[in-house]
Design a protein that fits this description.
alpha/beta; three-stranded mixed β-sheet; 33% helix; CBS-domain; Histidine-containing Protein, Chain: A
C-alpha cells in the first residue's frame, strides 16, 4: 500500500518558456494549451521560475517586465517524479504554490504537477479503492482474512463491517484505510471475535 507517485499524475513534457519569452507569447501559450502557468527554463531545461496567469495580471507589460524574466515568480519550487503525491501536496501548501515543475535527476523539467492533478486522486473509482483496501490494507499489511471484514465504498466513503480478530487494531485499520488515495472518510462497524 503506497500513495501514487508524482510521475503517475503529472503532465509530462510540459509547455515551457525561456527568460526572453515575451508577455504576449506567454499569454498565447496559456490560452492555446488551456493551462494556467508555464515553467521558465534556462538553456539546458533547468527551471528558473514560473509565470502564471496571476503573474500576468499582476504585472502588465511595461519595459523590462515584458518578458518571462520580469514576470516570473522565482525560484521555482520543484518536485521529483518519485515523490509521493502526499509529499508534493505538502510542498505546495508550505510554499503556497498551485503547481510544481517536476525535474529529473539532472534537474531538467520533465513534467508539471498541479493542484487539479491532485484532485484527480479523489476521482478514483469506488471499486479501485475497495480492491486496494482488501488486497493491500487488510490482506497484505494486516494479515486479516478478506472474508472476516466486508468493505463497502460509496463515493469515497469506506465502511468496514464484520468481526475484527484483534479489536485493538481498529485505530490502525482506520488510519491505514484513510491513507488510501481517494478515501474521503471511513468508519468501522466491527465486533470482536468471541473469546
Amino acid at each position: 500500500m503506497r500513495h501514487r507517485s508524482v510521475s503517475a499524475l503529472m503532465t509530462p513534457s510540459p509547455v515551457t518558456v525561456r527568460r526572453t519569452t515575451a508577455f504576449k507569447e506567454i499569454a498565447r501559450l496559456l490560452e492555446e494549451f488551456d493551462i494556467t502557468a508555464v515553467p521558465v527554463v534556462d538553456a539546458v531545461g533547468h527551471p528558473v521560475g514560473v509565470v502564471s496567469e496571476a503573474d500576468l495580471l499582476r504585472r502588465p507589460p511595461t519595459g523590462g517586465t515584458a518578458t518571462a524574466e520580469g514576470l516570473m515568480t522565482s525560484p521555482a519550487i520543484t518536485a521529483r517524479p518519485g515523490w509521493s503525491v502526499v509529499r508534493a501536496a505538502r510542498v505546495m501548501r508550505r510554499h503556497q504554490v498551485k503547481r510544481l515543475p517536476v525535474v529529473d535527476a539532472e534537474g531538467r523539467v520533465i513534467g508539471v504537477l498541479s493542484r487539479s492533478d491532485l484532485i484527480r486522486l479523489f476521482l478514483r473509482s469506488d471499486h479501485a479503492i475497495q480492491q486496494e483496501i482488501i488486497e493491500d490494507v487488510l490482506t497484505r499489511t494486516l494479515g486479516i482474512t478478506p472474508s472476516a471484514i466486508t468493505v463497502v465504498v460509496d463515493d469515497g466513503v469506506v465502511t468496514l463491517s464484520g468481526v475484527l480478530p484483534q479489536p485493538e487494531r481498529m485505530p490502525v485499520v482506520l488510519r491505514l484505510c484513510q491513507s488510501v488515495d481517494g478515501v474521503v472518510d471511513n468508519r468501522l462497524i466491527c465486533g470482536a471475535e468471541p473469546g
